[in-house]
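Q: A reviewer asked whether we had any structural model of the full assembly, not just the individual parts. We don't, so I'm hoping you can provide one. Inputs are below.
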Amino acid sequence: MTSLPTTIQDVFNEPGCARNASKSRVERKNGCTKQLKPGGAAGGCAFDGAKVALQPFTDVAHLVHGPIACEGNSWDNRGSVSSGSDLWRRSFTTDMSETDIVFGGEKRLYRAVKEITEKYDPQAIFVYQTCVPAMIGDDIDMVCKAASAKFGKPVIPINSPGFVGSKNLGNKLAGEALLEHVIGTGEPDYTTPYDVNIIGEYNLSGELWQVKPLLDELGIRILSCISGDGKYREVAYSHRAKAAMMVCSRAMINVARKMRQRYGIPFFEGSFYGIEDTSDSLRQIARMLIESGAPAELMERTQALIAREETKAWAAIERFKPRFAGKRVVLITGGVKSWSMVAALQEAGLEIVGTSVKKSTKKDKERIKELMGQEAYMIEDMSPREIYKMLKDAKADIMLSGGKSQFVALKAAMPWLDINQERCHAYMGYVGILKLMEEIEKALYSPIWDQLRQGAPWDEFDRKPQGRTVAQMNAQAANPVRDPSRNGVRAISFSNQAEASERESAIAAHGPKLAEPNTPCTSSSGRCIACRDIPSDLQPPALQAAE
Amino acid sequence: MAIVTTSKKACSVNPLKMSQPIGGSFAFMGLRGAMPLLHGPQGCASFGLTLFVRHFNEAVPMQTTAMSEVATVLGGHENLEQAILNIYNRAEPEIIGINSTGVTETNGDDVEAFIRLIRQKHPQLEKLPLVYVSTPDFKDAFQDGWGKTVARMIEVLVAPFDPARPRDASRVNVLPGCHLTPGDLDELRTIFEDFGLKPSFLPDLAGSLDGHIPDEFTPTTIGGIGVDEIATMGQVAWTIAIGAQMRRAAETMQVRTGAPFRLFERLCGLIPNDDFMAFLSQITGRSVPSKYRRQRGQLADAMLDAHFHIGGRKLAIGAEPDLLFDLSNSLHEMGAQVTAAVTTTNSPVLQRVRTENVLIGDLEDLEELARSRDCDLLMSHSHGRQAASRLNIPFFRVGFPMFDRVGAAHLTTVGYRGTRDLIFDIANLIITDRELNHGPTPDTWRSTNSDLQVVSPGLH
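A: Here is a predicted structure for the entire assembly that you could use as a starting point for your response.
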């Protein structure tokens, strides 16, 4: 058992991380969590990171130890998919109360584990530590140990209270928990020379299954996937794999590197986004397996499969070329996105006019210039306001980004597509890139844009120089009373202030009649509103109404 | 009289409840130019933000004091100061609304004192209203956070009654509970205006989260009620509170300004709306506009048309107390039986829910009750979808959050018209379910025992 601060220091000192390796000794000491500015942007916390990294394990009960906020506000929001158990979709939390804070929450946690065991009998229980129990000193390690011994099943502590750092740190802390408590604790029924691990892939929208058939065809077995559609037992014996693929998200670099260190499993960083990256990744997997002792003919079969699939994919993309000719894309994503996706978009005739380089290295920027020309519009750190303006000025035809910035585009009546975590389509592999093209085409050519970019009818009307300001117009629209300057001409008032019924408009148009408050103009037995002012001296009954 | 019990489980499974602080932040979102600020670790705000964005499909302003582990040990004064200054400089808000979280409450941060110190140190903040509400995560629930926050807004922002000026009889204060959607608020606004009243909604979510296209991108709330308008709320004739959660706010208003209040616990259903119309008629001295006379007729007719389908249904409903009370009673009045009722927090209205017992629990409890009592319609927020699919019964989404369907902000259930639409929607859901899943077959009537076969309610 290492203490949490030691683990965090250890995670920060990740030699497998290129960014970390390029730092000076002093910088490295400071770790990677950029202290968020209070009142600055809001990102997820370490608990959030740990939870999203492990949540896709399907047959595990994920128990969050803390007050209701951590789990109650956040559960059931991930688009992972399972081919088996759906236990992962259930939410378990100790929902600590004030009493638990005062007397400590360990007993409650233990009882919670007991209840879950009795009711759901999961393969394992992951217990997540959050801020409040960490503050009051609940020792989840000990509770898990005791519960594990008592109930005879793995109860794994995930030490990741939110306030220790960012979401990304939480991803890594989750990885550390797996390394410490899970990986290497089980054995597979059999092994083959074709066993691989896929690390840092979450099977969002079932993406993994877009690629799995290719691996199946090559006879490559996914021994374990951490954590998309993963099972507890698979992780436990994942140390028997012959090679590993580290999917482009750098969330779990520590897992891949330590598994190489401990079990000699070679890994590479790859991605299944875009045609070229998919081909590259398949070749890399084959190469590594061969180096680890698989027959050399695997490479020939892999190359043949790649050639076949690529031909099909490029042929299918051909269809989009005329549709995408001259269309400009702005790409705003958080981190290092795979450039092959860009290549595929360009191949289809789209022009990438801007991309965010907030987290890109110098090398990345060179690569961008190479791909997009010297004129590439690099967005260093644009405020939403600036992006909004840029889109409003129609410097682009579509924006691809994560969900957080969607409204910037949509509110500017600009086509937008989600290419981050929350998306509901799968864009992986040769099949996925086509899906992406289809989605882009649908977005670009939706008939709604032309309608939305037309102004409202009253915009025109308000601009007419009639000597009246818009403010006056609005005031009038909100309060359709007689305006002597109108000389009985009835102006059309557009207003969302009040649903002035036609009857009232009619009354307003009746100019002179307004002077006679006794003229009824509704069929109701009372009089219409427009016909009478409330006497300002009407004192309300000063009694308090009983219910 | 329902018996109210609390679940004894150590482990809450599939929570129905959401936390108090984000209920508080939600209330601040109904103010113009506001920035809700959660005093706590960054995750608290991030989770809340995601929840609101997915429900409303709108950009939602929400900030955090980003308490780190060290800051938590040392106290949050500096973080709060930086947060306020950063928001002030960057977002230029008209008001910052601060809610505490479990972490800062466990720590015992004296935020009111912090605010005083910050004001002393930074005179430029003199005119910026800062409203702080204590809302720890480990107590109460979403609607409590909302209720407390609105009450606190009134204490801080409403100017005391000025006897030199007469009360404005054409204005009313409206204090809506958090179970009212922007669609509900718009419906109410129309009703008040049709009675010749100018309503001031506090908070006014319909001004900021009803979906609109702004000309400029702003980091704070767009629309909602302005601080200047809130200040004058003491000069009005009446305060109308909607939902029992608003009693505290209404009483605060009365104590502070002397304005009498009337609390409407329900605004869904025929009789509650009759009361509402009668009250408006009474305070304005006007008869009910013909529009509402027509709407009442339509509602009455809708009840006639739909009671065949809704009558006898066994309802499982999970919602916050005020919403539970409103919906379950409205449907009870349509002839449905409220067979399972689960809620999140205690409230005086729970005893008056028309059912045998109300459980303060989670969605697992609701699912179990629904299964054992053979319910055939489930109502809750979107999280209930899993339970409904396991039970294989129709599911009506209501309340917050509703993240897997569009248009959540405009679901209207108040007024004659809202009630009418709700009744139609539920009846149609039941009809669809009957057509899909309960068509008679020869086997429906095949009985293995000689007893009289009891026909399932689906065949009514």
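A: Points you may want to mention in the reply: The mean pLDDT of chain B is 94. The two ends of chain B are 28 Å apart (CA to CA).
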